[in-house]
# Entry
Amino acid sequence: MKKIIHLKIILGLCLVVLGSAQAARFMEDLGRGVVAVRTSEGVFISWRLLGTDPNDIGFNLYRQTTGSSVTTKINGGRAALTGATCYTDTGANLSRDNTYFVRPVIDGNELEASSGFTLSANSPTQPCFTIPLTSGSTDRIHFVWVGDPRCRWGIRFCGGPSQ
# Structure
């Protein structure tokens, strides 16, 4: 009887220890993946929300225009952008290259800037961003929607010649 009680206690402790230990979660080391396309309304910018981001994260969005020494905070004096990881910039000079990047804001502190994405001067208006699978290949990724589903429309990888 005593052995059964000891066995139950040991078994119970093992279950508690094993239950509280969490398996390591494998995640890719991704950046923000900032992407911008020219639309009829301006420049649509989208970026990633990472699996390790806290629920209350915000973002400040910046634009650097070629030929200007000024980096413009797109969301201006407003608080950090929350609720979606996309924005439409209606104030860009589209006759010049524009580089976009975001800086996460956590607990009111602005963190390190993401890598930038440069939208070339005079880019055509398009609803998508095309990426060839391999150099010289005619194969393309067709109609894969990515990004934040709360955006009015997402970045679409579609067929067609590489831009």
Summary: The two ends are 77 Å apart (CA to CA).
